[in-house]
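ok trying this again, last paste got cut off
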Amino acid sequence: MEAPTETPLLPPGFHVDSSTLFASLIWGSIGAGYLIYAKKQRSGPAFAGGITMIVISYFCSTLWMSIFSVAIMAGVYFWSRHE
């Protein structure tokens, strides 16, 4: 497997490969779903979680994006249960 090439528009050390693009698509879409849900239900935790998941999908690598996104989903679930 060949090493990913660096793109001049991205920060040094940030590599874009198919797994990063796919993970960004999945977690960004789930974050957008959280935003739509938050708008309809007027839910603050879901809104904060959706925004955070979308932002994280732009700036984190695949592993950290997955870890943060699962933690955010769990946090939104428990935070919304206490309201």
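PB: full thing came through this time. Residues 18-81 form one domain.
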